[in-house]
Amino acid sequence: MQGQPFVLEVSDLSVQFFNRGKNPVTVVDGVSFHVKKGETLGIVGESGCGKSVTSLAIMGLLDKNKGVPSGSVRFCGREILTLPDKEKRKLRGNRLSMIFQEPMTSLNPVLTVGRQIGEVLRLHTSLDKEQRKERVIELLKQVGIPRAEEIFGEYPHRLSGGMRQRVMIAMAMACEPQLLIADEPTTALDVTIQAQILELIREMRERTDMSVILITHDLGVIAEMCDRVLVMYAGQVVESADVRTLLRNPRHPYTRGLIRSVPHRNRGEKRLYAIPGNVPSPGEWPPGCRFAHRCSEAMQICRQQSPHLLPMEDGTACRCWLHAEEAGTKGSVPL
């Protein structure tokens, strides 16, 4: 993928939430990354780290009265953060699509599966009614749904969780987007169905050469699916690397804690490891490094000064004072 243009470039993206009568709260803080054509980028971290809010900001789906993004989001070279709503709607579901965490809350319960997928085609293509129906049935078959002609007329509540997630994928893939954002696409699904859904996303990516942003808390999914990975903590990117480097040589103490938390039969541990403490809530972020109060390697400077995202010699980046000397700089690195 060397030399290929970036499909998505996110620079210094921040999101503030406003509650009536209260001070604004920063939820995402200065996030930067890029996605190449045909690449799968993983974003990993605990709940409350800002992963989903980042994706909603990119898609332009934040509630305008509550969430205000700033910074830059360029899709295929075009700034989309400041686009009018009408222009954003032309992109969403067409060249830029998203699979949400819970399909039951994302699908309309009073509309049939066929009508909901067909609506995407009606808005973004010139197909007539019969052509749209044929295309929807074809999509349902592509995502592995049996009896596609019958499922076309079914309502979401009549389908299993795995089937509903396949419908969401069919809807997202209807116009063969250039970038697909999958936000925890296997949440609440059993292991067998999880594997099928992930394999389906991989097949779609390989067939259409689209780019994928995969948001998850599961490092096993990251290892299986992704080319590169960002680790987020308390609204910031704390580490960035290609997936093999990150799993073999994690630098940030938080990343090491996440990897150690994954059960492993060869360790012989009687109890699973857990990172002590919790992710601080937005608005309650401590001074200095936001992970310092949970970190066994924290130094005095960690509690006083916030580290920058430091570039390493191997092309990775880490937000940690432990690696400031290795980086040889106090500047941040564009991702």
Explain the overall architecture.
- This protein has 335 residues and is α/β, with parallel strands linked by helices.
- Helices cover 32% and strands 21% of the residues.
- The strands form 2 sheets. Strands 6-7-8-3-9-10-12-11 form an 8-stranded mixed sheet, sandwiched between helices. It has a 4-stranded antiparallel sheet with strand order 2-1-4-5, with helices on one face.
- The radius of gyration is 21 Å and the shape is globular.
- The two termini are 16 Å apart.
Summary keywords:
335 residues, alpha/beta, 8-stranded mixed β-sheet, 4-stranded antiparallel β-sheet, 12 strands, 32% helix, disordered C terminus
List the helices and strands and how they pair.
Blueprint: E1 6-17, E2 25-36, E3 40-44, H1 51-59, E4 67-75, E5 78-79, H2 85-91, E6 96-99, H3 103-106, H4 113-124, H5 129-142, H6 148-151, H7 161-173, E7 179-183, H8 191-208, E8 211-216, H9 219-225, E9 228-233, E10 236-242, H10 243-248, H11 253-261, E11 310-311, E12 317-318, H12 324-327
Parallel strand pairs: 3-8, 3-9, 6-7, 7-8
Antiparallel strand pairs: 1-2, 1-4, 4-5, 9-10, 10-12, 11-12
Helix pairs in contact: 4-5, 4-7, 5-7, 7-8
Please give a quick description of this structure.
The chain is an alpha/beta fold and 335 residues long. It is built from 12 helices and 12 strands.
Helix percentage:
25-40%
Provide the spatial order of strands within the biggest beta sheet. 6-7-8-3-9-10-12-11
Structural class: alpha/beta
Order of helices and strands: EEEHEEHEHHHHHEHEHEEHHEEH
Anisotropy-based shape: globular
Oligomeric form: single chain
The major pleated sheet works out as:
8 strands, mixed
Q: Could you list the spans in which at least 5 consecutive residues all have pLDDT below 50? A: 329-335
